[in-house]
Amino acid sequence: MTTTVAPKSTAPTRILQMTLLPVILIIVWQLWAMLLASDPRTPVPTRIVTTFVDLVANGGLVGALVQSLTRVVSGFAIAFVFGATLGLLMGSYPRLRNLLDPIIETFRPLAPMAILPIVLLWFGTGTPAATAIVTYAAFFPLLLNTVHGVSRVDRKLVLAASTMGVSKPVILARVVLPAALPSVMLGARLAMGIAWTAIIAAELGVGAKSGGGTSGGIGQMMFVFYSYSIDLNAIVVCMIVVGVVALAIDRIFRFAERRLMPWRQ
Amino acid sequence: MNLMNQTQVTLEPSRAMAQGAGTAESSLAPIVTADVAPRAVAIGAPVSRAGIVRRALRTRSFSAVISFAVFLLLWDVIAEWLDAPIQFPSPLRVASAFVDLASGGELFEHALISTTRLAISLAVALALAVPVGFFMGLNEKANAYMDPLVELLRPISGIAWIPLALFIFGIGDVLPVFIMVYVAFFPLLLSTIAGVRNVDPKFVNAARTMGVGRAALLRKVIVPAALPTVMVGFRLAFAGAWAAIIAAELIGSPSGLGFAIEWYRELLMSPKVFAFIAVIGIVGYLCDLGLRALQRRLTPWAEGTGLA
């Protein structure tokens, strides 16, 4: 893939390469915050660590995280049911696809946050609103990748099965679905990543617009730290947690892809 | 590399759809709907009037008209039935709100503010990400040191920066621009690195054999070869930025499309909310069309490589 083959670096060099710049960055940040920053609220690495410990100890962070994750998972599950089913149908029936395509292509580029006002009007400021935005965000990658996967299934496989008298539903379940699985899994991974971003946006937005009242979750927690307690260290803790969760979600899905479809290696 | 896998496949479906309208390659149609026979006959047989009608029914533009008509009708029926003008305004009222906003100029005002911010952010992100991407792509050692930092920051979504950025920049123009630059930076950087590293070594070796210098090699070989991948990254960067600006303006800006939808929501003027949401979709769609055209103009050699 690469033009130059990277020289095999030894383990110590690898560790140095991995850590050098991040460590320098943190040290510079720490020194700058301690010596030069005039605002006492400036986030400092050491205080971020103690804030993290505090937030974990009082249970606030874990509670918010669990709430956000529950919403993401339920929103994703709803989107998966609709997205995969509709994708299977649209991939198998081109006429249906031609009919629905224009509508889907109209809504697909619309950012999840753009429907926040509608969602607020429909569902208020609680969990249903946040879940609805996640569902909307996760729906499109799931749908499009399922359609893509189904429509790319090798026709020979389908023909072979129907020659041998296999009925249409069975073909769909035993031939089309497994062949489309890699694409569906990819869609699921992308959808989950987008869903996680969307929940933060939704909770932030709902929190900001409802005066920090009812939404909960890690996104709203960040907003409360911004607008009420003005604790920037805590905001950075939340940002790091959001990043770590995003990374973990990505890795879990990649791992599942390898385990479920070893032939894709 | 991971990113490139994603970019290709995420962009591919829409392309596959655009091309796949009615081509045999992309469909299971013959088996599932068993309409292969009539179609095969229609090709050879003299075209009858019924055949023309049937063919017209199958064209994309016609099915688009049908589906939009059905969509609007359903919307109207549901709106009539629910009779909740605030939660579910009828399409007619949204259309008239759209006309009002357009004739008053307010619509263009907000759209112009948002697109200006978008253009500035994309320009800044390009100026930052592409040089760094070339540097990291060409220099294996720099890449080994800088990549961990990129991978540390990349999972933190731009949205998660909003509260901190609100504190640093306050409510105003800088916040959305900062968020968008951040969002656009990573796809551009990663696609530039991937584009530079995936230049066919044969091209590089051929140029070297012919005694081409470093600067010319970069300008005449590596840049043109990497450009299609960079353009794919640019379209992803645009899509991400356009999604992020709505969130940023909605939470932390006194103007722009994201602000407008939330402003009219608070006033419970739903038709205007829906009209502005439509504008967000339309502007996003038009920009993507423009970028596709730009892509074809800038990198005509990418045609057929899966990156066009």
Based on the structure given, which CATH architecture of chain A is correct?
Answer: Orthogonal Bundle
Question: Helix- and strand-based class of chain A?
Answer: mainly alpha
Find the CATH topology of chain A.
MetI-like fold
Strand content of chain B: under 5%
Q: Which regions of chain B contain 5 or more consecutive residues with pLDDT less than 50? A: 1-45
Short description:
With 265 residues, chain A is mainly alpha-helical. In chain A, 79% of the residues lie in helices and 0% in strands.
Task: Give structural notes.
The complex is a heterodimer of chains A (265) and B (308). With 265 residues, chain A is mostly helical. Chain A is built from 10 helices and no strands. In chain A, α3 packs across α9 and α5 crosses α6. By secondary structure, chain B is an all-alpha fold. Chain B has a domain of 201 residues: MetI-like (MetI-like fold), CATH 1.10.3720.10. The N terminus of chain B is likely disordered. The chains are: A mainly alpha (265), B mainly alpha (308). At the A-B interface, α1, α4, α5, α6 and α7 of A face α1, α2, α5, α8 and α9 of B.
Give the topology, please.
The complex is a heterodimer of chains A (265) and B (308).
Chain A: H1 11-36, H2 45-57, H3 60-92, H4 94-107, H5 116-123, H6 127-151, H7 155-163, H8 168-209, H9 217-227, H10 232-260
Chain B: H1 2-20, H2 29-32, H3 36-44, H4 49-58, H5 60-82, H6 91-104, H7 106-138, H8 140-153, H9 162-169, H10 174-197, H11 201-209, H12 214-252, H13 257-266, H14 270-298
Key descriptive features of the protein:
heterodimer, A: 265 residues, mainly alpha, MetI-like fold, 10 helices, globular, disordered N terminus, B: 308 residues, 80% helix
